[in-house]
Amino acid sequence: MNEDELIEDVLNQLTLIHGPIVRQEYMKTYYAFNWNDNQLSMGAFALYGPGQFTTSVHHGWILGTLNSGYRAVMEILMKEGMTTKLTELKKEMGRS
């Protein structure tokens, strides 16, 4: 796949998730990085440290980051007693 095809494929995939705003916001700049060719990562990592598997089965992936952010917002809302906002979060985003 050449660079133009790569950009078009990425834009198509992001548009499926986020809608037409992707193409409106695309600034014609990008940085493509092939993790499979990186000698230090060789694609990705999934090495779990002690106790990590029990906190997230998506360690090292974007979904793990999203889950961490969701959990942080949820904990703040709970600590501050913002039950209405907590209910809204769960309704809008589902459960982590």
From TrEMBL:
It comes from the Eukaryota. This is Amine oxidase domain-containing protein. It comes from Brachionus calyciflorus.
